[in-house]
Structure to design on (353 residues):
């Protein structure tokens, strides 16, 4: 099998590359990424020489249909896993256009080229699959009780989540209209190694190490369900190999925590690991809440558990400690990442709040 992994140089995509190369030694991976600010070739630096014999990286844009046609002419892909997306809510509020282009039109370009190659003489070729990696944010906001299920109506509240919901609907339409073998996963908040420091956990780690302010939106009582990226990658693999075409699978860690709790926990872990007394709660700064900020997300993951046998394995507190240790041990990676485009965005939009 040859898999096309789009958005492969990003956080979850690169972790999935490592997972598949370690667990599926018979498969070849083609990693595609546009290498925007959040895509980083250094994320592949830990690949072994043996793994690289089954790994090819290609720089390209999923919105470029001519490029995709050439790529598919040169490779017989059995599956496409679409991780490619603009993902940061704050950036979508400041510049929605790029989110609509990549997340909606890019997904449609991929679907189109897959259909042209896999639908032959009125039938879909055996063993083909298009897997869309989505998010629980497409469901909107929850009250203090209940969970998102796969049948929860979509109710996105930001340009980012609206673009992902739109992409999901287009993927579903290709199944309903053409019978295309598609799958959709919707996951809760990920954390772990190689995560770009615009997201909560790595941003807090990096700022705390530099004794910079730790910006917390509003009262910090927003609730998210957290899952380690390694557990997410195992779930995606199970959906790819065992999932029913046309199905949606929610993936959740069962770890609901308030944002302010996460920040406090990171301060405790960092101060213990480094012995740095300057890393303390005095760094926390409450800033104006962002527009359309959802209050709570929580995932019901019973479907993937009952149908495919998946459950998260990594304890949240241990996973958080492992994540902090990774950032401490990979300072060079961090310094290189934060020296670019994102820090300009951060300084412009957060520093004077």
């Amino acid at each position: 099998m040859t898999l096309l992994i789009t958005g492969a140089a990003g956080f979850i995509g690169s972790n999935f590359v490592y997972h598949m190369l370690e667990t599926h030694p018979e498969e070849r991976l083609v990693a595609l990424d546009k290498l925007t600010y959040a895509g980083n070739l250094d994320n592949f630096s830990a690949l072994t020489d043996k793994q690289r014999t089954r790994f090819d990286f290609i720089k390209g844009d999923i919105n470029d249909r001519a490029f995709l046609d050439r790529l598919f002419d040169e490779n017989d892909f059995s599956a496409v896993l679409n991780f490619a997306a603009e993902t940061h809510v704050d950036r979508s509020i400041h510049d929605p256009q790029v989110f609509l282009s990549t997340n909606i039109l890019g997904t449609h370009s991929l679907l189109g080229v897959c259909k042209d190659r896999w639908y032959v003489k009125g039938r879909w070729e055996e063993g083909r699959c298009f897997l869309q990696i989505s998010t629980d944010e497409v469901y909107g906001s929850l009250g203090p009780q209940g969970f998102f299920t796969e049948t929860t109506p979509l109710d996105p509240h930001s340009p980012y989540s609206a673009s992902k919901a739109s992409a999901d609907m287009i993927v579903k339409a290709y199944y309903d209209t053409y019978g295309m073998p598609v799958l959709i996963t919707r996951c809760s908040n990920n954390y772990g190694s190689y995560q770009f420091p615009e997201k909560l956990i790595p941003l807090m780690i990096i700022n705390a190490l530099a004794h910079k302010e730790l910006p917390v939106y509003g009262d910090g009582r927003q609730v998210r369900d957290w899952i380690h990226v390694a557990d997410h990658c195992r779930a995606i693999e199970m959906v790819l190999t065992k999932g029913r075409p046309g199905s949606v699978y929610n993936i959740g860690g069962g770890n609901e925590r308030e944002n302010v709790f996460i920040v406090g926990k990171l301060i405790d872990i960092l101060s213990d690991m480094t012995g740095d007394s300057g890393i303390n709660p005095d760094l926390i700064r409450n800033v104006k809440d962002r527009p359309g900020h959802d209050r709570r997300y929580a995932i019901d993951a019973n479907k993937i558990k009952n149908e495919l046998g998946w459950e998260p394995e990594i304890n949240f507190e241990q996973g958080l400690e492992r994540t902090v240790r990774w950032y401490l041990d990979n300072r060079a990676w961090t310094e290189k990442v934060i020296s670019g485009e994102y820090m300009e965005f951060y300084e412009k939009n957060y520093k004077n709040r």
Remarks:
- The chain is about 45% helix and 15% strand.
